[in-house]
Structures are given as structure tokens and as C-alpha cells.
Amino acid sequence: MHVTNCRVCESDKLELFLDLGETALANQFVLPERVHEPEPRFPLRLVLCRVCGLVQIDEVVPPEVLFKNYAYVSGTSDLIYRHARSLADHFCSTYSLGRSAMVVEAASNDGTVLQAFKRHGVRTVGIDPAENIVRCANEAGIETVCDFFNAATAQALRDRYGPARLVLARHVLAHVADLQDFVQGFGILLDRDGVAAIEVPYLRPFHDRLEYDTVYHEHLCYFSLSVLKTLLERHGLEVLNVQEAAIHGGSILVTAQRRGGLRAPTDLVNQLLQEERQRGWHRPELWHSFARAVARSKTAILNEIDGLRASARKLAGYGAPAKGMTLLAYCGIGPDRLPHLVDKSPHKQNLLTPGHHIPIAGPERLQLDPPDVLLVLAWNFAEEIVAQQAEFGRRGKFLLPLPEPHYWRERNAAA
User: Cα–Cα distance between 179 and 221 in angstroms, integer?
Assistant: First the structure.
């Protein structure tokens, strides 16, 4: 479905600045025996709202198609585990969450983050639409409801479990087509003195590091603090605090309370809002320049890969994240350029990538069939990957694609 109005302010003043073509759905991996069946493809284009400044894609794929059987699992990353513990420590300490407090996470995935809160003794409830992932969470002891989070399900959760002292929405808001319905759910579910915590990829690293591969059909929006403030205020919530985090290529964690609550906003909120005004995220010319840099990036990546192939260097890819699927599709990289990928997730192994049909194996393939160069598609976990694959690193090279193709050891030796 084509979108003509901004998801935050509902303006129709949307300006197209980046067209990545028609692509397959980034998490719809293909069984080898079904490789000849047609795959749906959808336009992947970024537009800027010239009123509120939201960067968003102008297409919506039905969420039931995207999320009912999902391939991404939080618990395959050590970085996610560490980040989860940090979040739990911070919120339980800062907001005095004791054993009577309830924490609800929207889009809780396999319960990795809620496990960290559970260790503090608080009550936890998750809600997630992916049936396969919800089964894993419940089997692991994290009570999880299989549904989408919105105003109606927030009321159902409150009726069943009571009000929440903390509603956590980590890296889900960008996936939500109806932002108004979703954010309305915070106010319904929150206790009188409760807080909502929203973590999203941040617009500054998206722009500065040329993270165009994070654009895919699940990621509908790309947020600044200013846009989040506008959205929250439409539903009677005010921003209390903002923290930057390195997770997922650069994110912000925004904490909010009911308007007029007991807590005063921190100075960090106004500082970041002022910086955003100075950077001019609302200016179309900034984003048209970004699009030109994306086109140059494609050329540089293909030149590097084709140069390696011409010199008889053997390539493989590490990671099959959704962002990697966008990069492969936009750059036109298939099995002829990248014969296979490896990924830790058993949910992706022995499948083919959507659209380009590159085989995915487990990391043990690196020992059985070692390449000379690994293209790290999961570049946001590069440090973790390099540490895990230290044996490969002693004889091979890790190639990171963005913001320009560069080698891990060379970049770090020069640092």
C-alpha cells in the first residue's frame, strides 16, 4: 500500500529523495526446494516530511505478512545480552522498580531483554506477534502474549495484569505503520507514575555513517528526537530523558512520562533538540545529498568485490541480517559475487537469502571452506564477530561495506 501522508503529523508534504528499487522482503528467507516460486517484491523508497521532519518509507506491507513467522532472534548476540543487562540495571535503579513493579515489553521477541529485568525480581510480560518466537519465549519462562501492541491490546494487558511501571519498546517503533495507535497504548498501560522507554535507531548516525542498508520494508520510519517529541506530545506524554547507545549502528533511548508528571526533564533533552535544529534534519537538500552518496557507495562496493574476484580472492559473507538483504539487493550482489553467507541463527541456516538466493550456512563453514575475505553484512556487530572469528582473522580479512568499503584490521591498525 502506497502512503501519501506522514505517519507522525499526517501532513501530505512528502518529498522523495532515495529510491532503492523493488526488493523482496528482507526477512522472508527461502527454502531451497521453493526457490523457483515467485517472490513478492515491493518498492523501497525514502521520503522526507517537510512539516515535522520524519524520514520514512512510502510503502506498507501488511504486518501479518512481515511478522507472524519471524527470523530475527535477539538471543543470538552477546551484545544484545550485555545491552539488556545495562537497560535492566538502569531502569530498576533509576525508577526504583521493586518486586511489585511490572515491566511490559512491546515486541519482546524471545524475551532476552525481559530475562534481564526478571533477574531483578520484577514481574515481566512480553507481547509479540511472531508465533514461532513467542513459543521460544514462553518455553524460556518469559510470559509472552502473541499479538501486536496497540491501544486495544494495551487495555487487554492492563485488565489482565494491572498497570505497568515501565513500558519498554525497543527497536519496534520503526516497524509500526499506525504510530498513533501504538503510542496511545503507552498511556493506557502505564501506571500513574510509570514511564515509557523507546529505543530506536537514531537519525544522526543513519545520515553520517550512510546507513542506507537499514532501510527495508519492516523499517517504516527513521527518527530524530524532535520527531519523537512531536509524536509523544500528541498522546499526552513528555520526554524526560534521552541517552545515546551504540547498539544497532547508533540508537537513542528516550524516556517519557505523562504530561505534568512528577519528574523534571534532564538538560540532555534540550541539548540534543538544539543540536538537531542546527544540523537541519528537516532540510530536503541534506537528504538529496545523502542519496548521491548512496549511489557512490554502491559503485565503491562493487568495485572492491569485483576487484577481489578478478585477483582470484575467495569471498563469503558474515551475517544474514535484514540490513544485509537491502545492501545485496541495491548493489545487485548475488551468488556469482558472494557464493555463500554464514550466520549464527539456526532460523536462517540452510535457507537462501530473499531475492538474490545466496545459500546460508552455520559459522562452522568458515573452517570447512575458508574464504580469503569475509564481507561483514552484520557490521553493527563487527567487533563481536571479529572476536568470535579470531581464527579466521589470523589468515583472512573482514571487509565492512559502509560508509565506504574498508578492512577491519587495516582500519583498526591505523586508529
Answer: 10
Cα end-to-end span (Å), the chain: 46
Domains and CATH numbers, the chain: 67-282 (3.40.50.150), 312-414 (3.40.50.720)
- Per the prediction, the chain carries an average pLDDT of 90
Question: What H or E segment, with its residue span, contains residue 148?
Answer: none
**Directed axis angle between helix 267-279 and helix 225-233, to 10°?**
120
373 confidence band (pLDDT: 50, 70, 90): very high
* 52 strand-pairing partners: none
Does the structure show a pLDDT above 70 at 249? no
Beta-strand relationship, 237-245 and 397-400: unpaired
Q: What are phi and psi of 159, to 5 degrees?
A: -60, -35
d(CA 165, CA 122): 10
Please, what's the b/e burial string for 210-239 (b: 16 or more CB within 10 A of its CB; e: otherwise)? bbbbbbbbbbbbbbbbbbbbbbbeebebbb
Across the range 334-361, mean pLDDT stands at 94
Q: What integer pLDDT is reported at residue 66 of this predicted model?
A: 66
Structure confidence at residue 131 (pLDDT): 86
**How are strands ordered across the β-sheet holding 221-222?**
14-24, 41-49, 55-57, 221-222
pLDDT reported for residue 413: 42
| Cβ-contact 347, 75 below 8 angstroms | no
CA–CA separation, 158 and 192 (whole Å): 13
**Element spanning 57, H or E:** strand 55-57
Q: Looking at the DSSP assignment, which residues form a beta bridge with residue 57?
A: 46
Indicate whether 71 pLDDT > 70: no
Q: Which residues contact 280 (CB under 8 A, 6 or more apart)?
A: 286
Using CA atoms, how far apart are residues 332 and 356, in angstroms rounded to an integer?
8
Rg, Å, the chain Cα set: 21
Number of residues assigned to the chain: 415
Determine the longest span between alpha carbons in the chain, in angstroms. Answer: 65
The residues facing 49 across adjacent strands are 14
